[in-house]
Write a structure and sequence with these properties.
By secondary structure, the protein is an alpha/beta fold. Helix 4 crosses helix 14. The mean pLDDT is about 95. The longest helix has 25 residues. The chain is built from 16 helices and 23 strands. The radius of gyration is 24 Å and the shape is globular.
Length: about 500
């Protein structure tokens, strides 16, 4: 059937400087989207297929390739933007939900960028982290409100309070849940090695645990999502902690989505689903329809693992986040993960990614305040994720009330990701968000793991310096200490929600 819509303008214009080009065909070899091909004695270009992954730029030996955004040739309109019109054209053609990868591209302010950290000057001297100890070690899990001591038969003093299992992190930065299937095994191995090197933990995502990750299982947080992909008792026992995923910041209110193109034979075996089939998780857990059901699942998992492992619950940041977090805190869970609307993903409906949920900053602040008001703050740890871009974001999240953070997209960028947003296609030319063997092998875990570890080390050092500048020598003293923040160009209502004073106050 002929289309009345014609073709849409391409997003990127790719050009080759013919004088510099040496016809080596590396652009053809490296582009998995088919932008380049040879026709006789010339290399031709189809700019419509370009995703701006920059693989061709990185591997062109003569820097002969250029990529630029194509000027918009639509009539300028403040309401009917290019993005809106192209979404309509795509759906008019296909009749399908538009999928998108990575985090939200909505043009909305980032609250982190309007929060300024404190530094000591005259009245209080800063701490020098080069010469004085600064403690970043973080414990995730339930904390007792008090410690009881007793004298044993030998006359020694010992702890009488029974402590709940906690995870000990050498840095408040963890690697977030990205499943095998959404990303390659090489990408998962790279992050697992980085977690091991830096003394932190990595999430498996909802795709089960591949046998190749067994050597790193002591640093893995295994996830139980609504699809229960790959979940069995062996899986639960291998994790250092277990996370129940109720929601995700990139797509609150719906389940996960892994396209069939990425369900290879190995992925199907690990997830325990048919090869080549779409892995679509249900929106709810079909055994959780209220807080009582959640409590039962938390306790069942703890019972199955002999009460030796902390159990986390992950929720998306939505309007009633504070209420949800308080309810989870009463469910026997050890930590609550809050995922903001800027959280990344391999595949999400565009309409959910850009229009559902609330910012992480607001969700963490309101949750921390609600837990304190109800006397529940020691019952759970708070883990922030969804749009953590740099060490300053980590520090600000902790000041707003988080105990630790997950990073996802930042870790992928450290491995080479260009954030082209085409993860769902399974054609990632960097070997990250793909299952094609020829593409997967492009990612060297030895190299990628070092790059991710370097990122965590660098951010950890920067956090240490930020703490020293503020005269704080313990990450625990930073948590929830909102007096260390000031809001810049934020309205009074938002400052009140954040419980942060304006600059100058």
């Amino acid at each position: 059937m002929n289309s009345n819509l014609g073709s849409m303008p391409f997003r990127y214009r790719v050009t080759i400087d013919r004088e510099r080009c040496m016809e080596c065909e590396r652009c053809i070899e490296n582009c998995s989207y088919g932008v380049f091909w040879r026709d006789g004695d010339r290399i031709l270009i189809n700019s419509r297929k370009c995703t701006a992954c920059h693989r061709c730029l990185a591997y062109c030996p003569r820097d002969a390739i250029s990529i630029e955004e194509h000027p918009c040739d639509y009539r300028n309109h403040p309401v009917w933007t290019r993005q809106i019109r192209e979404a309509i054209y795509n759906q008019a053609r296909t009749g399908k939900i538009i999928l998108a990868g990575m985090g939200s591209v909505a043009d909305l302010p980032v609250i982190f960028d309007h929060l300024m950290l404190d530094a000591s000057q005259v009245t209080t001297p800063p701490t020098d982290p080069l010469r004085e100890p600064v403690e970043l070690r973080t414990y995730l899990g339930k904390k007792p409100s008090k410690l009881d001591l007793r004298r044993n038969s030998s006359g020694d003093i010992e702890l009488a309070t029974e402590l709940a299992p906690n995870l000990m992190l050498e840095t408040p930065i963890m690697l977030g849940h990205m499943s095998y299937g959404a990303i390659s095994l090489n990408a998962q191995i790279s992050m697992a090695r980085a977690a091991q090197e830096t003394g932190t933990y990595m999430g498996t995502g909802e795709g089960g645990l591949h046998a190749g990750l067994y050597p790193y299982q002591d640093r893995m947080i295994v996830q139980v999502a609504s699809g229960r992909f790959g979940v069995n008792i062996d899986y639960l026992e291998r994790g250092a902690a277990i996370e129940i995923k109720l929601g995700q910041g990139a797509k609150p209110g719906i389940g996960g989505h892994l396209t069939g193109e990425k369900v290879s034979k190995d992925v199907s075996r690990t997830r325990m689903i048919p090869e080549g089939s779409d892995a679509i998780s249900p929106a709810p857990h079909h055994d959780i329809y209220g807080i009582e059901d959640l409590s039962q699942l938390v306790r069942a998992i703890k019972e199955a693992t002999e009460w030796k492992k902390p159990v986390f619950v992950k929720i998306a940041a939505v309007n009633n986040t504070a209420e949800n977090v308080a309810a989870v805190a009463r469910s026997s869970a050890d930590a609550v993960v809050i995922d903001g609307f800027r959280g990344g993903t391999g595949a999400a409906p565009r309409v959910f990614r850009d229009h559902v949920g609330i910012p992480l900053e607001v969700a963490i602040a309101s949750a921390d305040r609600e837990l304190c008001n109800q006397g529940l703050r020691n019952e759970v740890s708070l883990i922030a994720c969804g749009g953590i871009r740099e060490s300053a974001d980590v520090a600000k999240a902790i000041v707003l009330g988080a105990d630790a953070v997950y990073i996802g997209t930042a870790a992928l960028v450290a491995m080479g990701c260009r954030v082209c947003g085409s993860c769902y296609q399974g054609l990632c030319p960097w070997g990250i968000a793909t299952q094609r063997p020829d593409l997967v092998q492009r990612l060297d875990p030895d190299v990628a793991s070092k790059q991710v570890a370097n990122l965590i080390h660098a951010w950890t050092m920067e956090i240490t310096e930020l703490m020293g500048a503020a005269g704080v020598n313990s990450i625990e003293s930073l948590r929830g200490n909102r007096d260390r923040l000031r809001g810049y160009m934020l309205d009074e209502n938002l400052l009140d929600v954040l419980d942060v004073k304006p600059v100058g106050a």
